[in-house]
């Protein structure tokens, strides 16, 4: 799949298992990485544990005009 998978869970959650090749940027730090994220290969797919945090991240980046989607649970991506 072309694009970039961004896992917005905490580093501890990410270490417990994640999508191969995904990037861990915790939701609470996402605003510090906006310009970096906008330069990543799109579409972006945000994932987390249940889809709530990734939905917040996807909504924010969609509002900035970034091609992205909420992938929901990392286990479903």
Q: Can you tell me about this structure?
A:
Helices cover 29% and strands 22% of the residues. A four-stranded parallel beta sheet has the order 2-1-3-4, with helices on one face. The protein has helices at 11-15, 34-38, 52-63; strands at 4-7, 23-24, 44-48, 68-73. With 77 residues, the chain is of the alpha/beta class.
Q: Strand order within the widest sheet?
A: 2-1-3-4
Question: Which regions have little confidence, pLDDT < 50, spanning 5+ residues?
Answer: none
Sum up the overall morphology in one term.
globular
The averaged pLDDT comes out at 96
Head-to-tail CA distance between termini: 10 Å
Q: Main sheet?
A: 4 strands, parallel
What is the element string, with H for helices and E for strands?
A: EHEHEHE
Give the number of helices. 3
Q: What proportion of the residues is helical, as a percent range?
A: 25-40%
Radius of gyration: 11 Å
Beta strand %:
15-25%
Structural class: alpha/beta
Q: Can you count the beta strands? A: 4
């Amino acid at each position: 799949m072309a694009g970039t998978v961004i896992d917005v869970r905490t580093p501890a959650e990410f270490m417990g298992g994640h999508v191969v090749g995904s990037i861990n940027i915790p939701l609470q730090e996402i605003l510090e990485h906006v310009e970096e994220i906008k330069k990543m290969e799109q579409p972006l797919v945000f994932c987390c544990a249940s889809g709530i945090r990734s939905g917040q991240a996807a909504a924010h980046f969609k509002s900035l005009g970034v091609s992205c989607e909420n992938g929901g649970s990392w286990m479903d991506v």
